[in-house]
Specification:
Mean pLDDT: 97
Bound molecules: adenosine-5'-monophosphate-propyl ester
Radius of gyration: 24 Å
Shape: globular
Pfam families: ACAS_N (PF16177), AMP-binding (PF00501), AMP-binding_C (PF13193)
Helix content: 25-40%
InterPro entries: Ac_CoA_lig, ACAS_N, AMP-bd_C, AMP-bd_C_sf, AMP-binding_CS, AMP-dep_synth/lig_dom, ANL_N_sf
Distance between the termini: 21 Å
Number of helices: 21
Catalytic activity: acetate + ATP + CoA = acetyl-CoA + AMP + diphosphate
EC number: 6.2.1.1
GO molecular function, one term: acyltransferase activity
Oligomer: single chain
């Protein structure tokens, strides 16, 4: 860990919304008087019927219930679009940069209004009503934002599935939230390669039938349309008007569901609601990125992840910002692409993930230094711990030592950023997410749930609710309670470990549960294991994470084959292919070790601690192995380990 400190530059503090004194004052008020604080800041969004109640939340294990602004009504799409029309109708709302550098497009707030109204009417035409779930499986094209906002306009609940997920994963998510309508594109385009989105939907729909599929034309590739179910978006859009009244929604009506992996079972549908989410997404966007009128803001995430929801679409648009949406990948056509796009569109605020930074760092400085980047003012990081080496490169080479870095810690469940520097207030330490945002009360506990004080290390919990918090697991409130509030009663458990230093700064050390963070994407080990054992030659599998230079963590799979099956390299390749087909490319095992046996206790429990150590290639100190049913399995695992230093 690095101990160097980067003080707030005077010019950054001067223009920032808050300096350190103001931060401390606002933070104190936000925890001493949450009703007063959020009652005031809730007004940053337009309410149809103003709220009279602010916070009504309980972390009591027997009665977990989270409500914010519960008697207020509003519409998210009206907040993200209509309310800006009078003052900034001609300002770009979205700058779209295509996969191919020759393709880009600007969509003003006025145009966004027309597009979203039309899209909303197309959805009405498909029979979608308030409260219905709509699955969105689109590439990074403006229609993804239109579709989200169109759902919000008519009160439908969107569930976006990342375009890299397989037909099976898509089917599971369609079924999970019982959606009758899927919005997709003929094909996606990433790094010059086509992604067969519509064909995947066709396969998914065999398992999870839907009533309607709305298809956006992106590449013009060959696809089949099923009569009576599939419609072309452009044909339907030509038939409908560009006026659709926004529906009045209660603050606690659902806005979206987003599936995310946990330590057990299948992915959970994280449910976010309307009022508190929007207040929190827009407020964090403004303060964390120190957003000012006229700034060009770019978050490189995909709308398939929560970062894309909160910080490409809802937060920035609620603030009337110009948000850049990028269809492609960081390394196409070359590793200078990010910085070329920054120059092309004069990006001021740039938000990306450590995995991208590490990959680009490896490609050589010249791809960065060839570009100007003079428009850049602030850099951000999200998704996984950023190692000080990558932080320093980002700071020195990309930001030329003039752009503060905000290392933002949060989760799908939190709706928005919880622990982060504020550029005008917080001295930076490379690798630390630093201090809590307003209203957020982090704490560190030991395995028994005892609060640890001062400089310490343990498990990260949050003591009280903030407006952007998820409200439930869709359709399974008990799972919500068990997952987040059962480990430490009365506290929200994040699943992350952390260290707190003598300055009260938080350093997230990574997941402490059976979740692997691969390139900033969450993957449950149980999901990968069940994909592996679904293969006819596999009898048993155990999956753990191991340190990976680019991805942060890689996926290491121990696989026991069925009696008589040959452990060949071909079979390894086949198993990787199999997992890609079952879940998607992001779940591909990086290393597979065929192991005749797995280390188990006498009661049959797999000892993952041992598997993790071997995968890390640090097996000198395996701890107590005396409880193993057959200690000799460990020797075989060590002898045949795949990750030798
Ligand atoms: O382990 C933490 C890590 O990503 C997890 C949340 O993943 P997801 O829900 O997919 O959301 C990612 C984007 C918000 C967390 O539990 N994580 C996220 N941001 C950071 C981080 N770890 C360290 N530092 C961060 N800045």
């Amino acid at each position: 860990m690095s101990d160097s400190v980067f003080p707030v530059p005077a010019e950054v503090a001067a223009r920032a919304h808050v300096d350190n004194t103001k931060y401390l004052e606002m933070y104190q008020r936000s925890v001493d008087d949450p009703d007063g604080f959020w009652g005031e800041h809730g007004k940053r969004v337009d309410w149809i019927k103003p709220y009279t109640k602010v916070k009504n939340t309980s972390y009591d294990y027997h009665n977990v219930s989270i409500k914010w602004f519960e008697d207020g009504t509003l519409n998210v799409s009206a907040n993200c679009i209509d309310r800006h029309l009078a003052t900034r109708g001609d300002q770009p709302a979205i700058i779209w940069e295509g996969d191919d550098p020759s393709e880009s497009k600007i969509i003003t707030y006025k145009e966004l209004h027309q597009e979203v109204n039309r899209f909303a009417n197309v959805l009405h035409g498909q029979g979608v009503k308030k409260g219905d779930r709509v699955t969105i499986y689109l590439p990074m094209i403006p229609e993804a934002a239109y579709a989200m906002l169109a759902c919000a306009r008519i009160g439908a609940v969107h569930s976006i599935v990342f375009g890299g997920f397989s037909p099976d994963s898509l089917a599971q998510r369609i079924e999970g939230c019982k959606s009758d309508c899927v919005i997709t594109a003929d094909e996606g385009l990433r790094g010059g390669r086509k992604v067969p989105l519509k064909a995947n939907v066709d396969m998914a729909a065999e398992k999870a039938p839907v009533k309607s599929v709305v298809v956006v034309r992106r590449t013009g590739g060959d696809i089949t349309m099923q009569d009576g179910r599939d419609v072309w978006y452009h044909e339907e859009a030509a038939r409908v008007s560009d006026h659709c009244e926004p529906v009045e929604m209660n603050a606690e009506d659902p806005l979206f569901i987003l599936y995310t992996s946990g330590s057990t079972g299948q992915p959970k549908g994280v449910l976010h609601t309307t009022g508190g989410y929007l207040v929190y997404a827009s407020m964090t966007h403004e303060y964390v990125f120190d957003y000012h009128e006229g700034d060009i803001y770019w978050c490189t995430a995909d709308v398939g992840w929560v970062t894309g929801h909160s910080y490409i679409v809802y937060g920035p648009l609620a603030n009337g910002a110009t948000t850049l949406m990028f269809e492609g990948v960081p390394t196409y056509p070359g590793p200078g692409r990010f910085w070329e796009v920054c120059d092309k569109h004069n990006v001021n605020i740039f938000y990306t993930a450590p995995t991208a930074i590490r990959a680009l760092m490896g490609a050589g400085d010249e791809h960065v230094t060839n570009t100007s980047r003079k428009s850049l003012r602030l850099l951000g990081s999200v998704g996984e711990p950023i190692n000080p080496e990558a932080w320093n490169w980002y700071y020195d080479v990309v930001g030329e030592k003039r752009c503060p870095i905000v290392d933002t810690w949060w989760q799908t469940e939190t709706g928005g950023i919880l622990i982060t520097p504020l550029p005008g207030a917080t001295d930076l330490k490379p690798g630390s997410a630093t201090r809590p945002f307003f209203g957020v009360q982090p704490a560190v506990v030991d395995a028994e749930g005892k609060f640890l004080e001062g400089a310490t290390e343990g498990n990260l919990v949050i003591k009280d609710s903030w407006p952007g918090q998820m409200r439930t697991v869709y359709g399974d409130h008990d799972r919500f309670v068990q997952t987040y509030f059962a480990t430490y009663k009365g506290l929200y458990f994040t699943g992350d470990g952390c260290r707190r230093d003598e300055d009260g700064y938080y350093w997230i050390t990574g997941r402490v549960d059976d979740v692997i963070n691969v390139s900033g994407h969450r993957m449950g080990t149980a999901e990968v294991e069940s994909a592996l054992v679904a293969h006819p030659m596999v009898s048993e599998a155990a999956v753990v994470g191991y340190p990976h230079d680019i991805k942060g963590q890689g996926i290491y799979a121990y696989v026991t084959l069925m009696e008589g099956e040959e452990p060949t390299d071909e079979l390894k390749k086949e198993l990787v292919k199999h997992v890609r087909a079952e879940i998607g490319p992001i779940a591909s095992p990086d290393l597979i070790q065929f192991s005749p046996g797995l280390p188990k206790t006498r009661s049959g429990k797999i000892m993952r601690r041992i598997l993790r150590k071997i995968a890390e290639d640090s097996f000198d100190n395996l701890g107590d192995t005396s409880t193993l049913a057959d200690p000799t399995v460990v020797d075989d695992l060590i002898d045949n380990r795949q990750n030798r230093a």
